[in-house]
Design brief:
280 residues; globular; binds zinc ion; two-stranded antiparallel sheet; TIM Barrel; alpha/beta; 9 strands
Length: 280
Amino acid sequence: MPYRTMADCHSHSDCSFDGQAPMEQMCARAQSLGLLYYAVTDHCECDQYDGSPQFGGRKYYDVVRRAWRELEENRRRFPDLHLLKGVELGQPLQNLPAALDVLDGRDYDIVIGSLHNIAGMPDFYHLGGEHFSQDQLDALFGLYFDQLREMLDWGKFDTLAHITYPLRYLYRPGDTPSFERYSAMLDVIFKKLIEQDKALEFNTSRLGRTDCPILPDREVFTRYRALGGRRVTLGSDAHCPENVAKGIPEALDLLREIGYTEYTVFVGRQPQQIPIEYIP
Ligand SMILES: [Zn+2]
Ligand SMILES: [Zn+2]
């Protein structure tokens, strides 16, 4: 490890529909890597809390309860691992009672706020194969930023996940994914995060991959920092043990280049700044 400490604050066990390994195996991997903190943040897609044919009718109501039980079991199983109890709360405003039910009575360490789909539309992932005109893309990104803003006005989460998520799928062939056209809308989101003392997640799941477009992480974090954004959580978004902490050293390299000297971890939903200590 080129860094004295690393934390991975976004990962999934097989409690999530797309997770590939039991939480115990995810934790064992995190322990073997010597992470300072490790969070399992299984999905709760709030808009599918009551069952979804897409996932065989599996209800997130049940997923949340199972994941919580397993978090508590694995805390006991790995007393030396700083396992953080987390959840990735997807589209909370698309089913507000569900989001509130998830948070009620569970003392999470970290709640990740995500927006995987615009209200009434499929996950951006499923829009990938479509060919959109520039006007259509502008309209979609307009809705995306509007709905992120509404999520922030609600505010019951700690870090905003993978802000570049739609850029993974929505760009015109030959274009480099960028937020350049939407910089004013992006600034609104960053200013709200800063005002509310929330963090912006650096999602490292695409770093170093050659089979997908390069995301504008440098552009995003440079601007966030210029506006005063100091809180950055790191998340591999691992869905299997091999990917735990993957991309995090590269993200720390980039953050250092931009001028960051610390990253953020949430413990008991309180932000803690951890120094970035490079070991040459
Ligand atoms: Zn996500
Ligand atoms: Zn995730």
